[in-house]
Amino acid sequence: MCSINKEELISYLDGSLEESEYKNLKAHIENCIECQIELGYLKKPIDLLEDCNRNINVPIDFVANLNEKILLDKDLKARISKGSRRLSAGFLVASLIIVLMVTTFAYETFDFINWWKSNSLKESTVIEELINMGYGDIIEETVVDNDIKITVNSVVADDLNTLVLITVEDLKGDKKYIPGYTAEETLIKGRFIGRYSNHLSLAKRRDYRGGYTLYNEEDNITKRILYLYPIYPEMDTIYISFNKLYTLDEFYVMDFNKIPVEGNWSFEIPVKKYKAETYRIDEEIFIDGNLVLVEEIIIAPTVTKLIYRYKENQDHGYLLENIMNISLIGKGIEYKGKIGGYTVGQNIRRVEIDFESMYFNRPKNLSIKFDGYTRRMIENASATFKLDLEKSFPQSFDYMGNTITVESVQMIDEELIISLKDSQDKELYQSLDFEIYHLDIPLLTVIEGNDVIYDYKSYYKTSYTIKSSLRDLTEDYGLDPSDKTTFAIHIRGYNQYIDAGGTYKFKLSDN
Amino acid sequence: MKIRSLLRQSKDKTIESVIVDGISKNYLLPFTDWLEGRRDKLYKIGWSFLGNSHDVEDALHNTIIKVIENIQQLKEKRYFETWVIAIYINECRSLLRIRKKEEIKNSFDDIQVTSIEGSLMELEYYLNTLDENNREVIILKYISGYSQEEIAEILQIPIGTVKSRIYRGLQALRKSITEEG
Q: Which residues of A touch B57 (CB under 8 A)?
């Protein structure tokens, strides 16, 4: 039995041993079968690694590209002398999950087309106005391919967004087209500021955040505003290459049933970025006893952004979810929230909401108004109901005075599909939060069909289609899901809308 | 090469001194030359973590910014290289974590995620079977050619730990290779 520490063989192979040590070990190996075998075993993966290493193709301009940017970058040099200004929040976000939520409308009835018409007019007017005031540029460059003409009309850029207005015209037919979202379909190259960290994180964004299709009467023309990330330098050229176009259906969304049109429409767009004004607020407000910290308001040419954060669980027996119907009031004008998103980490939710720009009408004071908030009750709100798939359906159980009825359970293609109704007799809550278990293993579950809620106060969800994936059971646990007696529905809590609105006024001072 | 002429000017100074002093004074040319000289090494490390050149460029770019911003924090100039590589490895790790989360999120949305370039699925596959700790030292040792001592310096771990991790990593790799047949 050889007493040599086999780890030493690593040093033997890489030549990092002292000469005398090396000689001694070499002599030993020549007489030790065990070590010889071990050496052979180690050489195999090392050879593989070195082989693969040789095959990694290093792009010739890899460092040269970066060097060029660095040497020409005036911003960077300014930062060395000033010391960098970090926009970081005062806490560390451990995990980031970014979700986009669209704000809901509090109207009784809702006329989509007219709303879209007037909203489109607003959106395009904003861009026109910005250009007229000198905050954007008219490009008017055109490319025709495959009988489709794409024009980049104009671009407006600031610290928060780069907006590109395009027109797509079907020259031979009467279809409306828009470019696809993925990097293969719309390739964007440039130096953009990434969204994942609070301090500067450069990313070559290869996709775009979103777009807004403007309403227009013609059948063969689509006008669309592309929302790109803000660019990093003050001035730069971005390259956009459209490669795939989808037709719009009658609801003006991408029709995936029709074959997209492929082609190449490439553009080089000069962009100049305009500065946003950031106002640090850092004030606490209370919403029904919950502490919310209003962090800052950023007034940029393209958008106004409100940033606030709060602890989701403030020990009241519920999780604070969303603050509803936020609007900003400045100089007598009310700006309704357009779109928002949030990041969550360590029980803290940090929310960003976009509003129409007030760049040319800057108030000294700003009020934040909201109607209420949604929360998920977790204290004394959970219940578990075991499903017996051997018995017939429907099967019912009681929850908080309501009757929950499981109408059917199906197993299709590694998915469990549960159809469920809530009698909502008590009208205590708006909806329920479900988890599906097999034995004690929670399944990856999705609740289908999110309702568009116009009025939270009178919204009571009565039917659910719950889909759970059984794939993990078979792959990770090697279980047989056809064993039908061990599924359970677990209610984690109920969701409520609380009518607890308020208005808070803040002073905007220069920082 | 520019660095050598600077050295002649500054007599007793080491290359690292010239680079570090240069950065502090806004003179970035020695640094960029130094980077160019390590192009292969840097690319290969990044590639082994991230699998595609876009991400490798991002990681290196972020590293360069951080090096320039934080140059004052480097205590001893002779540790410049290991310091830079340590920052670079951190950037690679962060970016990898972000990409992995994107994959989880995007699997709900069916949005395509950047795919791994061409023919080196094999390396990517085998490296992925390793523990994070072992994988890093294997990459630094066999892909970038750093010595055990240098790796200990970069990752700020004892040299004994470096050796163990290399050994365990190689054993795990050998096992994967033989299982594949």
A: 62, 65-66, 204
Whether the predicted model's global pTM rises above the 0.90 cut: no
Closest in A41, A202, A206 to B61, CB measured: A202
Q: Do A302 and A161 touch, CB atoms closer than 8 A? A: yes
* DSSP structural state of residue A313: B
Question: Residue B21: enclosing H or E segment and its boundaries?
Answer: helix B15-24
Q: What per-residue string of b and e applies to A312-343 under the rule 16 or more CB within 10 Å gives b?
A: beeeeebbbbbbbbbbbbbeeeebebbbbbbb
pLDDT digits (tens, 9 = 90+) for B48-80: 888 888 889 889 988 998 898 888 888 788 889
Q: Locate B40 and state its tokens.
A: 């292969």
Dihedral angle sign, alpha carbons of residues A130, A131, A135, A140? positive
Structure tokens at A423: 């009698």
Structure token digits, residue A144: 């025709």
**Count of pairs with CB atoms under 8 A, one residue in A, one in B:** 135
Does the distance separating the beta carbons of B64 and A183 come in below 8 Å? no
Query: Going by DSSP bridges, is the β-strand pair A402-412/A415-422 parallel, antiparallel, or unpaired?
Result: antiparallel
- What is the pLDDT confidence band of residue A406, given thresholds at 50, 70 and 90? very high
Residue of A nearest to B98 (CA): A196
- pLDDT attached to residue A77: 60
| Cα-trace Rg, chain A | 30
A282 dihedral zone (left: phi>0; alpha: psi -120 to 50; beta) = left
DSSP string for residues in A407-473: EEEEEETTEEEEEEEE--SS---SEEEEEEEETTEEPEEEE--PPPPS-GGG----EEEEEEE-HHH
Cβ contact A196–B98 (<8 Å):
yes
Q: State ipTM.
A: 0.76
Interface contact flag, A58 B148, Cβ < 8 Å = no
Q: Which of A127-131, A284-288, A328-332 has the lowest mean pLDDT?
A: A127-131
Residue B155 to chain A, least CA–CA distance (Å):
18
Contact B112 A79 (CB under 8 A): no
- Give yes or no for residue A448 having a pLDDT over 50: yes
